[in-house]
Amino acid sequence: MAVKINWKMDGFTQLRKDPALVKQIDDLAGNLAERAGRGFEVKTREDDRYRAIVFTDTPRAMVVNARDNTLIKALGGG
User: Fold this and answer.
1) From the centroid of its chain, how far is CA 26?
2) Which pTM was predicted?
3) Which range marks the domain in which residue 34 is found?
4) Residues of the chain whose pLDDT is less than 50?
5) Is 45 within a domain?
C-alpha cells in the first residue's frame, strides 16, 4: 500500500524565495561565469522560484564553448 504524502506548497514557495537561497544561487552562478571566463554572463529570474543561468554572451564565447566545452569544464565535468 502506498503512503499518501500531503505536500505543503506554501512551504516550498517560501523556501524557493528565501534570501539565503537566492544569495547562494547568485554566488554559484557568478562563480561559474567567472571560471568560464570572458564572454560568459549570468541572468536571474524569479517567478514562482528563483533561478539563474550562465550563458555565452559573445560570438567568441559561443565558439570557444562549442569547441572546448568551457561551461561543462567550469562546472567540474569533462
Assistant:
1) 8
2) 0.81
3) 10-75
4) none
5) yes
